[in-house]
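Work Package 4 report. The design task specified in the project plan requires that, given a folded chain encoded as structure tokens, an amino acid be chosen for each position. We show below one input record used in the internal validation round.
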């Protein structure tokens, strides 16, 4: 790409940010919550190659808010990954999905 101006390169980048509000029904302490949430975050990272962070309700042992970032060159692929992540949160045995918001950039 040497010698090519950046404005001449056509980039099709899709960025999606998913916020998942979760109730951690099985947690009786922050330690329980962190164990459950960490396992879920690790599975999402491994299976879908996304970035995941707990961004709210850090000191509440019954709830968590996760932000998941997806970056792709293909919008349909990114939407498919987002749906799989929402499905995984919906079907998790130790948590209940209470809120979901997806923003596309």
């Amino acid at each position: 790409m040497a010698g090519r101006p950046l404005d001449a390169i056509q980039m099709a980048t899709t960025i999606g940010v998913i916020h998942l509000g979760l109730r951690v029904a099985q947690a009786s302490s922050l330690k329980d919550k962190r164990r459950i949430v960490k396992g879920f975050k690790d599975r999402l990272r491994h299976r879908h190659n996304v970035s995941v962070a707990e961004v709210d309700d850090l000191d509440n042992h019954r709830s968590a808010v996760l932000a998941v970032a997806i970056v792709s060159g293909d919008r349909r692929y990114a939407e498919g990954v987002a749906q799989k992540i929402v499905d995984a949160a919906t079907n998790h045995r130790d948590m209940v999905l209470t809120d979901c918001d997806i923003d596309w950039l």
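The mean pLDDT is 91. Validation will be extended to a larger panel in the next phase.
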